[in-house]
């Protein structure tokens, strides 16, 4: 996979019948929904059936299982992701026919034409910040359009077409997609090297964010000044006279968070912006979520929301799926699932999980432990960050490591989950267990866990299946029957 070059697009209503290859993906499915909502004949295919395909069919989208050239039908535009290989039979047929072939970022950019584009980029926190911004604007009556990389926990939807002027998108930097969107407000949550298989060096990766922030269409840059990478860019942009809104806990933040403290399962703090100052309380935990909310707040103010309206609307945000999502609380054992797959994201998730574990210990009087179940994602990322993964696993009382989920990559000899196991041991992890097969994880976790423990599954691959498979095993315990 290589970096994408932005292309000219036409409005989505003019693309004719459109066919999505790998339509069941988290990014593709939301975009496909919106094309269908606009009345564009929409179809797609994926390698296996899923609940996502079932949802798309209910929306009137023709979905095929498996890939076959005949499934293109009368499509005039074919949409692909970076994971689609050139030997895919549908892509080969599209090229043979001379059809318009767009990366999904171009298909999304076409939807944004004529709207005020809000693009949320960053190494971490994109999905939650995009979702917070979309929910804040919706709850405040601004009726935005949006496409988020993960479904909202309240609706299960990841996209919507609204009648308001704002179109909020999660802007992926991994393949350069974030340079494709017509962005008026650029949000940068942080900049920390990732996806080096595409970018080559940390310096090139950081330059990509500078390119994103300095596009001719960008009028405002909302940027985190608690993160060293994004702070450096904020200072550069401000020195050039660009319109920058800084957010975070730093003294010089324009949208500043202070007095942070837990509030039930969430968090509360004081948010200050100019002469406006007051409490903000979120239903989701962690300082990182306060940072995400600060970015969303800044966007809301640019788009005309008042202080009180923005803060109150953010307080109604209930999260997205796979972001510290509670799967079950059975037999005195809580099981959460989180998409975190970079060391910094895992650190934030485990810090929040530790606080939740301690709060549970105080409430029940049980000496509960924090059990982290981590599945490394991508062989290239495991090579780049094996040592950092091992170090962050020391935040858990017990680290259960799965083998690498290769996803779109071919295996690299010698690169397995054992690299993380060895690193965790070197860094002094309390207890490390290696479980190669993901379907063995539920039994292993059931064997390890005891009442009062908190288990969190971590990774952006198929480790998400573990919590639902573990739940019925916990339900069979005597402790569950006694409740």
UniProtKB/TrEMBL annotation:
Q: What is its main location?
A: cytoplasm
The UniProt annotation places ATP binding at 122-128
Q: Where is the Mur ligase N-terminal catalytic domain?
A: 18-115
Q: What reaction does this enzyme carry out catalytically?
A: UDP-N-acetyl-alpha-D-muramate + L-alanine + ATP = UDP-N-acetyl-alpha-D-muramoyl-L-alanine + ADP + phosphate + H(+)
Provide the E.C. number(s) assigned to this enzyme: 6.3.2.8
The record's listing under Pfam families reads:
Mur_ligase, Mur_ligase_C, Mur_ligase_M
Q: Tell me the GO molecular function terms.
A: ATP binding; UDP-N-acetylmuramate-L-alanine ligase activity
Q: Do you know which SUPFAM superfamilies this protein is assigned to?
A: MurCD N-terminal domain (SSF51984), MurD-like peptide ligases, catalytic domain (SSF53623), MurD-like peptide ligases, peptide-binding domain (SSF53244)
Subcellular localization is given as: Cytoplasm
Assigned keywords, A-Z: ATP-binding, Cell cycle, Cell division, Cell shape, Cell wall biogenesis/degradation, Cytoplasm, Ligase, Nucleotide-binding, Peptidoglycan synthesis
Q: Where is the Mur ligase C-terminal domain?
A: 322-461
Q: Name one GO biological process term.
A: peptidoglycan biosynthetic process
State the superkingdom.
Bacteria
Provide GO CC annotations from the record. Answer: cytoplasm
Q: In which pathway does it act?
A: Cell wall biogenesis; peptidoglycan biosynthesis
Q: Tell me where in this chain the Mur ligase central domain is found.
A: 120-299
Q: Which InterPro entries match?
A: Mur-like_cat_sf, Mur_ligase_C, Mur_ligase_C_dom_sf, Mur_ligase_cen, Mur_ligase_N, MurCDEF_pg_biosynth, UDP-N-AcMur_Ala_ligase_MurC
Tell me the protein family, please.
Answer: Belongs to the MurCDEF family.
Q: Please state what the protein is called.
A: UDP-N-acetylmuramate--L-alanine ligase
Organism lineage string: Bacteria, Bacillati, Actinomycetota, Actinomycetes, Propionibacteriales
Gene it is expressed from:
murC
């Amino acid at each position: 996979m290589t970096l994408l070059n932005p292309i000219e697009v036409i409005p989505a209503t003019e693309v004719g019948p459109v066919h999505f290859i790998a339509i069941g993906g988290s990014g593709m499915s939301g975009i496909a929904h919106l094309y269908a909502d606009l009345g564009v004949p929409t179809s797609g295919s994926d390698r296996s059936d899923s609940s996502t395909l079932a949802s798309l069919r209910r929306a009137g989208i023709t979905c095929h299982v498996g890939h076959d050239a005949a499934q293109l039908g009368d499509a005039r535009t074919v949409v692909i992701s970076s994971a689609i290989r050139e030997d895919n039979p549908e892509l080969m047929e599209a090229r043979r026919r001379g059809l318009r072939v767009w990366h999904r970022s171009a298909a999304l950019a076409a939807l944004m034409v004529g709207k005020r584009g809000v693009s949320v980029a960053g190494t971490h926190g994109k999905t939650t910040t995009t979702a917070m911004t979309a929910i804040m604007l919706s709850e405040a009556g601004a009726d935005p359009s949006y496409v988020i990389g993960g479904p909202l926990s309240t609706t299960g939807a990841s996209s919507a077409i609204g009648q308001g002027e704002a179109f909020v998108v999660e802007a992926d930097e991994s393949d350069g997609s974030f340079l494709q969107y017509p962005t008026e407000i650029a949000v940068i949550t942080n900049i920390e090297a990732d996806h080096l298989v595409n970018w080559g060096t940390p310096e090139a990766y950081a330059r990509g964010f500078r390119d994103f922030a300095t596009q001719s269409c960008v009028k405002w840059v909302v940027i985190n000044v608690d993160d060293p990478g994004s702070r450096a860019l904020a200072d550069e942009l401000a020195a050039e006279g660009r319109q920058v809104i800084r957010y975070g806990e730093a003294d010089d933040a324009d949208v500043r968070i202070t007095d942070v403290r837990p509030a039930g399962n969430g968090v509360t703090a004081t948010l200050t912006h100019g002469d406006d100052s007051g409490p903000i309380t979120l239903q989701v935990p962690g300082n990182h979520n306060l940072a995400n909310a600060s970015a969303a707040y800044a966007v809301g103010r640019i788009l005309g929301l008042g202080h009180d309206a923005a803060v109150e609307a953010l307080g109604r945000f209930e999260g997205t799926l796979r972001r510290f999502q509670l799967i079950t609380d059975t037999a005195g054992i809580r099981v959460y699932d989180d998409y975190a797959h970079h060391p910094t994201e895992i650190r934030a998730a485990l810090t929040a999980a530790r606080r939740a574990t301690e709060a549970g210990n105080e409430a029940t009087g049980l000496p509960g432990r924090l059990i982290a179940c981590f599945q490394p994602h991508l062989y290239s990322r495991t090579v780049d960050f094996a040592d950092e993964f091992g170090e962050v696993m020391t935040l858990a009382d017990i680290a259960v490591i799965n083998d690498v989920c290769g996803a779109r990559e071919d295996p690299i000899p010698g690169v397995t989950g054992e690299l993380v196991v060895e690193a965790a041991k070197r860094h002094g992890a309390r207890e490390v267990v290696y479980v190669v097969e993901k379907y063995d994880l539920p039994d292993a976790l059931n064997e390890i866990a005891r009442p009062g423990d908190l288990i969190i599954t971590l990774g952006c691959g198929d480790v998400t299946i573990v919590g639902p498979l573990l739940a019925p095993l916990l339900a069979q315990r005597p402790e569950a029957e006694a409740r």
